Structure formats: structure tokens, C-alpha cells
Amino acid sequence: MPAGTPRPATYQSEFTVLHALMERGCPVPMPVMASVEDNRPIPGVLEAWAVTQVSPGEPVKNSPISSDLAHGLGRFLSILHALPVTGFGRFVEQPDGLTGQQESHLEGVRARWCWANLWPLDGSELRQHPFSERRLHLTEKLQGFEEAIFNAVSDEPIALTHSDLHGEHIFQRDGALSGVIDFGAAFIGVPAWDFAVIAFYHGWPAVQATVSGYVYPLGTQRLLQQTRMLALVVGLYKLVDSHGLTPVALEDQKPAQPQTPSPPRLRTGSPAC
């Protein structure tokens, strides 16, 4: 999707996800109203908008994720990834059901991660990636992972993934998970995408702790293998995305603080890729 392309409003599908998770006892904010459902324009606000209740607790931000919180996040992801979905990629905006707009794994991934280089899934050469100018000593090593990355992306089962689990979207209270917010970047793909994002923002130990509370039908080792491959993709993508963060997947460094998203009380517009 070229730069400057309007980002579609996703509040209808987000509310569908929130309702489904609330029915299953998950700690997500209760939907209140959205412009797409109620057709209630706000004077002076031209974009789509949505209102939810505020999640209890405080966002994790850049604090280390405790073992209890990670275990709770793993249980949450088990429920999220078990929600019934069809298709791939970003959701069709409709009042009922969660259906992807795209027809294949690869098309769905490209629709989600659409605002920067997505080597190797966008067909680009690694030598064309800005990364190669800064980390020449790692370029040859990474090129050997292309086949494994494509295999990880195209695996089964597919699931509804949050895909944006940075510290502003994970809430905690007394060391336990108290909320997960903002499903505007959710898409249908392999479950390992969520763990790859956790690896980028919170580090590999957080992935291992989260997996302790997670149930994966194909086994933990397979999930972790896929996560390692997709963490490379996420890390390279974020290098040239607007966040400008250092990928945990590539270097043993603490990630810089991400840009602060809008508060959960009232959101307008649409999320970034």
C-alpha cells in the first residue's frame, strides 16, 4: 500500500473481537459506541471514532513483564487464537463474523505489514533493505533464513492475532494481566506473529514466559521455531517503520520506548501497520 493511502477504519471488526473476548471472560475494555455502529458524528471530528471503557490497572510500557503477567498473557492469547475466523489478513468490516479480506497467507501478511520493507515476504532483496547498509556482517546470515520464513508464514493453523502487543497495549495490576487493548492492527495469520511482536518489544525471555501459559496444538517447539523466524521479519520491518526502534530479535539490546498511542477512552482514525 503506497504512502499516503488512507487507512481504513476498523472499529466494527474491533468491536466484534471485543465482544467475543468478553463473552469468554477475557480482560478487554467493554465497547461503548462507535461512529460506524451508531452513525453519531461528533462536531469537528471528521474521522471515524470509537469509545470503550478504560481498562483497569496501568500499561506495562517498557517495564519488564513479570512471570505471572506473561502466563496470563499466554492464556489470553490461547483464547484469542481460538476464535473462529475465515480467510486471511485484515478483516472485512461487517457487523457479524470475522472474515479476512485476503485469499492467502502471503497476501494477508502483506496487507497487515504494509508501510515499510517486509523482507523477504514482499519479494524484495535483502541488499535493498536499509538494514544491509548498517549491519553488513549479518546480511549473509539472514539470507539463509528466507525459506524458513516463508514456511513459517504459510503454516497452519491460522488464527486471529493482535499483532501489536507493545507495552501501551498490555495492562497490569498487582503484577497480573488486567487488560489488552487496541485491536486495530489485528489480522488473520499464524499465531507466531503475536509472539514475534512480543520478542521485538519485550525480549525473548518474555516470549518463553508467555508460552508457559499458552496452548498450541502443534507443540511449543514448533511455535518457538516459527517465532524466531517471524521475529526477524518484524525486527527488520520496524527498523524502517516510523517507530525507529532497535529490534530485540537481531541484537541483545533493550528496545527504545515506542511512540505512545492514543488513550483508550476515545480513538479516532485508524491504526498504523
Query: If you consult CATH, what is the topology of the domain at 57-88 and 102-260?
Result: Aminoglycoside 3'-phosphotransferase, Chain: A, domain 2
The helicity comes to 25-40%
Order of the strands making up the biggest sheet: 1-2-10
What's the average pLDDT? Answer: 85
Name the CATH superfamily classification of the domain at 57-88 and 102-260.
Answer: Aminoglycoside phosphotransferase (APH), C-terminal lobe
> How many DSSP-defined strands?
10
- Radius of gyration, in angstroms, nearest whole number: 18 Å
Strand % is 5-15%
- Find the structural class using helix and strand composition: alpha+beta
Order of helices and strands: HEHEEHEEHHHHEEEEHHHE
Shape: globular
Largest beta-sheet details: 3 strands, antiparallel
What does this structure look like?
The protein has helices at about 10-25, 35-40, 65-80, 105-110, 130-135, 135-145, 145-155, 190-200, 205-210, 220-240, and strands spanning about 30-35, 50, 60, 90, 100, 160, 170-175, 175-180, 185-190, 265-270. It is built from 10 helices and 10 strands. A hairpin with a 2-residue loop joins strand 7 (about 170-175) and strand 8 (about 175-180). With about 270 residues, it is of the alpha+beta class. Helix 7 (about 145-155) packs across helix 10.
Would you kindly provide a brief summary of this structure?
This protein has 10 helices and 10 strands. It is α+β, with helices and mostly antiparallel strands and 273 residues long.
